[in-house]
Amino acid sequence: MKALVYNKDFKNKIELKETDDPKILDPKDAIIKVEVSSICTSDLHIIEGFVPRAKNNIALGHEFSGTVIETGSEVQKIKKGDRVSVNCITFCNECFFCKKGFINNCEKGGWDLGCTINGGHAEFARIPYADSSLNKIPDNLSFENALFVGDILSSGYFASKMIEIKKGDNIAIIGAGPVGLCSMVTSRILGAKKITVIDINQKRLEFALNKGFCDYIINPLIDNVEEKTKELTNKRGFDGVIEAAGGDNTFELSYKIARANSIIGVVAMYENNQILPLPNMYGKNLTFKTGGVDAIYCDELLNLISKGIISTDFLITKKFKFNDILEAYKLFKNKKDDDLKFAIYH
Length: 346
Ligand SMILES: [Zn+2]
Ligand SMILES: [Zn+2]
Hints:
Bound molecules: zinc ion
Oligomer: single chain
Mean pLDDT: 96
Number of helices: 11
Number of domains: 2
């Protein structure tokens, strides 16, 4: 089969090449025919050498949906022929962490697909622990409709849950990229009444506002963020803040604009350490939560999409055939302000 293989010794680090078809290696495995996949910034991080756990010479890709073509002898829930979305986290569902819902720290899994084992930028993929790592796509949805369920939509929802939104809350989301946009959509469902979005990318801000995903936008390059925050919150600060940007000063911003006694959910990835100036914030009584996504709500999210309550189709700004995936990677790396996610059809 053809796969997009990452190898640090390749001239351009990635090549679309012939590889062996995947085989069932464990009775809990399933093999799927990949139908649609997407490129994630984490794929670029692997290529750039920023992911220490990534293995060399593997097929990239951890955002995809497909059709099950074979299952191992111990797979029960998932059947051959099922249309499935793939969880970016491979998890056993029976270890100490999985039993508590902390699947990101599964003792036998974690972010494996397209990182430590072959992923979904291929014609076929082997999915370990198929019964937990795959979710059936409802009949009324396409592979494309379900494409982001197992990664960025889950991440957005995870962020929204982190800040424990109460009905009527006035929250802020830093970062209007794909995860930020997904958390705007899911924060509404959880009861946020007012959503303010902060980003330096004016096009993304206006996109979010025009789509109705948020109520107010703040661009730190144009606006005084602290003044605007006072204006929008009766001088109190936001009832919850999601930090999904990972910029040089966005962590600092997150606790500055938060109301006393609120929760700050940090889902951003940083290139540098961040400082927590505890003496300055003494008495503000903040709660910080950090995290890589525990993507345990995939069925719930698929159900919400199926009922038309949410949709992530707006994220797809370009479409490619699998044979053109190298071109897609090139464009994704140098993507323009108004580009969000690409869909690759296999
Ligand atoms: Zn990802
Ligand atoms: Zn586990």
